[in-house]
């Protein structure tokens, strides 16, 4: 069984438990996902399952959209054996056995889950029912991008004094220079810069409920990213 699933963040709401307490939760539309590839130690050096979520539109003559929203030839060949190429023809002529394909539509969101691949086949469907017995999960997504921000907003600096000697630099970082040794700044110095738009993992969140009919999972607390953003949900390995 795959230890995770792909999906989209629907949004936040609140529910009530049996004792009447309010619980803030995040609703995620998870799956169904298809197994696109299986990584093995013999061929790839590690074990993993590659999942794909949400069909990607195939290019058509009448579709007037940007090419980024359409499945490229390489993406279609990744999931279908019906699309031939010079490379596949040469490999077949030399006797190299082709890898099995999922024979499904190209996918928008593809990620790998490392772990045992025993009993998993290419083309197999993964649904929220596989998480029915899971208690805690880790959720990975890209956080909301907030553009270029100063040190007070980005790193919670307190700013400089609003008294004598400070003129129009109250929100500045202040001095950043080092002494004669080492005469440079160390990497990772907290400064102004891009805030957000980074890969974030929120760990050890409680899985409240699973709705197999609607492909929804309800997780206690907040998860990274905007509503509608892609998320990766994994069974947590955090103890306690």
Short description:
This protein is mainly beta. The protein contains 4 helices and 12 strands.
Quaternary state of the chains = single chain
How much of the sequence lies in strands comes to 25-35%
Radius of gyration: 24 Å
Tally the helices: what do you get? 4
User: Could you name the CATH homologous superfamily of the largest domain?
Assistant: Translation factors
Shape assignment: extended
Q: Class by helix and strand content?
A: mainly beta
Largest sheet: 6 strands, antiparallel, barrel
Please report the first level of CATH classification, the CATH class of the largest domain.
Answer: Mainly Beta
Q: State the CATH topology of the largest domain.
A: Elongation Factor Tu (Ef-tu), domain 3
Mean pLDDT equals 88
What share of residues is helical?
A: 10-25%
In the predicted model, the low-confidence regions spanning at least 5 consecutive residues are none
Distance between the termini: 23 Å
- The topology string of helices and strands comes to EEEHEHHEEEEHEEEE
Reported CATH architecture of the largest domain? Beta Barrel
Strand order of the largest sheet: 1-2-11-10-7-12
Overall number of strands: 12
Q: In the residues, how many domains can be counted? A: 2
């Amino acid at each position: 069984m795959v230890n995770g699933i792909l999906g989209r963040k629907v949004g936040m709401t609140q529910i009530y438990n049996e004792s009447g307490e309010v619980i803030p939760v995040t609703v995620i539309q998870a799956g169904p996902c298809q197994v696109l590839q299986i990584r093995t130690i013999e061929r790839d050096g590690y074990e993993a399952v590659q999942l794909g979520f949400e069909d990607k539109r195939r290019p058509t003559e009448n579709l007037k959209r940007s090419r980024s929203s359409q499945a490229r030839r390489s993406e279609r060949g990744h999931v279908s054996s019906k699309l031939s190429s010079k490379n596949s023809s040469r490999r077949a002529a030399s006797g190299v056995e082709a890898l099995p394909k999922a024979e499904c539509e190209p996918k928008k969101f593809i990620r790998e889950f490392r772990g045992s691949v025993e009993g998993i086949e290419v083309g197999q469907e993964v649904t929220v029912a596989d998480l029915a017995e899971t208690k805690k999960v880790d959720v990975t997504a890209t956080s909301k991008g907030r553009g270029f921000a100063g040190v007070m907003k980005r790193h919670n600096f307190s700013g400089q004094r609003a008294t004598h000697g400070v003129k129009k630099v109250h929100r500045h970082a202040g001095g950043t220079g080092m002494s004669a040794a080492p005469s440079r700044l160390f990497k990772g110095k907290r400064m102004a810069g891009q805030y957000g738009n980074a890969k974030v993992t929120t760990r050890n969140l409680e899985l409240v409920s699973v709705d197999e009919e609607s492909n929804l999972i309800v997780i206690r607390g907040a998860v990274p990213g905007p509503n509608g953003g892609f998320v990766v949900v994994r069974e947590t390995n955090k103890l306690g």
